[in-house]
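Lecture notes, unit on protein representations.

Consider one protein chain, 397 amino acids long.
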Amino acid sequence: MVQHTAWDTHPEPLPVDSAPVPQYGTGSLADLLPTLAAGLGVPGMTAGIAELTPADRACVFLIDGLGWEQLRAHPDDAPFLASLLDSSRGGTGRPITAGYPATTATSLASVGTGLPPGAHGLPGYTVRDPATGALMNQLRWQPWTAPGPWQPYPTVFGLAHEAGVHAAQVSSPTFANTPLTKVALSGGEFHGRLSGEDRMDCAAEQLARADRALVYTYYSEVDGAGHRFGVDSDTWRGQLGHVDRLAQRLAEQLPPRSALYVTADHGMVDVPFDEDHRIDFDEDWELKAGVALLGGEGRARHVYAVPGAQNDVLTCWREVLGEQFWVASRDEAIAAGWFGPRIDDRVYARIGDVVAAARDDVLLIASEREPKESAMVGNHGSMTPAEQLVPLLEVRS
């Protein structure tokens, strides 16, 4: 493994304020459900995405891993979804942003709570639990942590249900009682369906159940194919074609006065398997120096320093990675708005002492401690357009 030193890198690291911060408050995933709920008359909800027109029945179909750039690059594989590109974001033809980091646990929490990561408190794939000092995987919820204190805010679905709106989630039965579902997507009814076709049919049925309805459904395998084979592989294209047919199936069953919004939790980039593109933390003595825990994921790292070493770690990481990553201290990342306009006290120490977000097509792997993640072809997490921009396609009946 080639070791990286300050002599190898550009003398001027990427400025922290040059990172393209997500559009919190006006055009991010956290703004979607509050906007729809405001249109349904749910008290306390604000229509942050001003381009959307209210509907009596609103459905969100979230396709895990289908970024705006990937959809635009494959119109022949998804003719129905591609035909809706001009409808995105209320007919403006523009995407919205996922939020930082652009990863599933963070994005689903932003969707369901209507809050940015600094408030809902799931600011990464793995983050340090200040109460135990150990890394907490927020997607798999390992080690188990009491969900309520970790994310105490009500979901938009719960608030809509209390306001008399029929709220329902339609997803795999596997997710019915997971802690992530509880903190991010609970409220109203949960309907487990194994096949994508059954989910689309059930979502349409739930929309028709009441004069006012808020329904969510989900499909994960586009993301899975991207991680395993890459976002231009035959397998990925096959999954894209399948989900295209699912979206059309749902659109054709919409009851009157409905709006369907097709979106995603993040996009994805393929990273080559060579030492120039995959830097191995576990084999790099400079990057490891002073680091107690390595959190996050390959394109969006939380770095937790041993006491007293925070400044040294920040300096070293900027010297080694600063030409390819935006490298910030915790306070710099917060001040730049990476995690949203506010950071709750309980969330502050979950964020790394150093935060590193990839700008280039590179990955900071950890081959020994994260062997499965380090072997993935497609990756996500950072603030590049390929990862951040997601569609908000619209069909109305």
